[in-house]
Design goal:
Blueprint: E1 7-14, E2 21-39, E3 52-54, E4 56-57, E5 60-61, E6 64-71, E7 79-93, E8 96-104, E9 113-116, E10 125-130, H1 139-146, E11 154-157, H2 168-184, E12 189-191, E13 219-223, E14 226-230, H3 250-264, H4 268-271, E15 275-279, H5 293-301, H6 303-307, E16 313-316, E17 323-325, E18 335-337, E19 342-349, E20 352-359, E21 364-369
Parallel strand pairs: 10-11, 11-12, 14-15, 15-16, 16-18
Antiparallel strand pairs: 1-2, 2-3, 2-6, 2-7, 4-5, 7-8, 7-9, 10-19, 13-14, 17-18, 19-20, 20-21
Helix pairs in contact: 3-5
C-alpha cells in the first residue's frame, strides 16, 4: 500500500526580522510546498482566501521533500498566523505534472501556528542561549525550561548542537525535533554554527535547513534596542590538521567574514542600536596557552573590528566550561562563555542590559549587567 504524504518535520522559523521570516518544513515525499498567512486577529482563518507563498527557485515551484519559504513585506511588531502545505508530485515529464494528495499542518482541531515580527521600537527584549548539546536527549528541554524560555523573545543555539553532521535525519533526531516540539514553530531561533557542525558529509548542506535564504551563515538583526551580530567562527584547528583530511578552508572563510563585519558595524542598523551583542561559538581568549588556532584567528581578524564597534558583550560556548573574561587592552569588551550544562538568559529592561547564567535546575550561577 502506498505511503500517505505527510509533513514529516513540522515547520520552524528562521531569520525572523522586522519585515520578513523564513519558514522551513519537510515532507515524507517529493512535493510542492507553500505557506498560507493571515493576521493574528479575531477573524476565522477561513474568512477569506489567504495569500499563498510558494517554495520556488527562479520562478519555478520546487519539487522536494524539504521546503523553505521566505515571506517579505511584513510589518514590524505584528503577529501573524500561518499553516504550511505539501502536495505530492506523482510524475513530472516536460511541462506535464501529475499531483497527488495534500498534507498540511492541522488547523481543523488546533489553532494555527503564530509568530510576531521583530520591532526595533520596543524598549525591552529578552533571549535565551544554549550551546554544546552534542545531541544529548532532553537537555534542550531542561535548559530552556530552567530559563523560562516561554517568556523570552528568542532563542540562540550557539553551536555544537551535534558532534558531527552525517545526514539530515541526525539533525532532527539530535535536536531539531525536540526544538520544534518546544518552540521553534512560533518563537524565533537564531543559530550560530559551531565547529562540530562543520564535520560530516552533510556539513556542506547545513544551510538547506538554517538561514536558507541568507547569503551567509553569519548575519545581523535588530530586536528592540539591541543589534545582534551572529558570527560563524569555523573550526578550531589549523586547516592543515590531519583531523580535517584536507577538506577545510576556514582561514579564508574567516577573512571573508571579517570584511563583511567591517561593513556591518558601520550600518545604520548597528550604529543606531543602544546595545550591541555578539553571538559566536568560539571565544577569543587572551590567554595564549588556552586558545587554539581557530580562536587565535578570531582574535586577529574579528576582534580588531569589534574593539572599535562599541560591543557590550560577546557570548560564546565551545569550552564546555564557564568562563568570564573581563575587558582588556587586547579584547576591549567582556567575553562570557556558557557551558554545556548551563543556560544564559538576557534581557533589556528599564534601560539596563542584564545576562544571567543558570544551571539545569534554574539556580543562578552568575549575573552581569552591561
Amino acid at each position: 500500500m502506498a505511503q500517505k504524504v505527510t509533513i514529516s518535520h513540522y515547520p520552524y522559523l528562521q531569520n525572523l526580522g522586522e519585515n520578513e521570516v523564513s519558514i522551513v518544513w519537510l515532507s515524507n515525499k517529493p512535493t510542492v510546498g507553500w505557506v498560507e498567512l493571515a493576521p493574528d486577529d479575531s477573524s476565522s482563518f477561513y474568512l477569506c482566501e489567504r495569500p499563498k507563498y510558494f517554495d520556488t527557485t527562479n520562478g519555478v515551484k520546487k519539487v522536494s521533500d524539504i521546503h523553505t519559504v521566505r515571506i517579505k513585506g511584513l510589518e514590524p511588531g505584528v503577529s501573524y498566523r500561518y499553516r504550511v502545505f505539501a502536495q505530492e508530485v506523482l510524475s513530472f515529464e516536460g511541462s506535464q505534472v501529475v499531483y497527488g494528495k495534500v498534507a498540511s499542518t492541522n488547523v481543523y482541531k488546533k489553532a494555527p501556528l503564530t509568530f510576531t515580527t521583530n520591532d526595533r521600537t520596543k524598549k525591552e527584549t529578552s533571549f535565551v542561549m544554549i550551546n554544546d548539546i552534542h545531541g544529548r536527549k532532553g537537555d534542550i528541554s531542561r535548559l530552556l525550561k530552567a530559563a523560562s524560555f516561554e517568556n523570552k523573545d528568542m532563542i540562540f543555539f550557539n553551536g555544537d548542537m551535534l558532534s558531527y553532521v552525517p545526514d539530515r535525519d541526525t539533525i532532527f533526531s539530535g535536536f531539531m525535533d525536540e526544538s520544534i516540539r518546544l518552540f521553534a514553530g512560533e518563537k524565533p531561533m537564531y543559530y550560530a554554527r559551531g565547529n562540530h557542525e562543520t564535520r560530516g558529509i552533510f556539513a556542506t548542506e547545513f544551510q538547506q535547513l538554517f538561514s536558507p535564504h541568507e547569503p551567509n551563515l553569519y548575519f545581523m538583526f535588530r530586536q528592540g534596542p539591541v543589534c545582534f551580530l551572529v558570527l560563524d567562527t569555523g573550526e578550531d584547528k589549523p586547516d592543515s590538521d590531519i583531523e580535517y583530511s584536507g577538506i577545510t578552508d576556514y582561514d579564508t572563510y574567516r577573512t571573508e567574514q571579517a570584511a563583511w563585519l567591517k561593513e556591518a558595524v558601520q550600518s545604520k542598523d548597528f550604529q543606531e542600536a543602544t546595545y550591541r551583542i555578539v553571538i559566536a561559538h568560539m571565544p577569543p581568549l587572551t590567554d595564549k596557552k588556552a586558545r587554539w588556532h581557530g580562536q587565535d584567528d578570531v582574535l586577529r581578524k574579528f576582534v580588531p573590528v569589534l574593539n572599535e564597534a562599541g560591543i557590550d558583550v560577546m557570548l560564546c560556548g565551545h569550552l564546555h566550561r564557564m568562563l568570564y573574561q573581563p575587558p582588556s587592552h587586547e579584547v576591549k569588551f567582556p567575553v562570557w562563555v556558557n557551558s554545556w550544562n548551563t543556560v544564559m538568559e538576557g534581557c533589556v529592561k528599564d534601560g539596563k542590559l542584564s545576562v544571567r547564567m543558570r544551571d539545569m535546575d534554574g539556580k543562578i550561577i552568575d549575573e552581569h549587567q552591561f
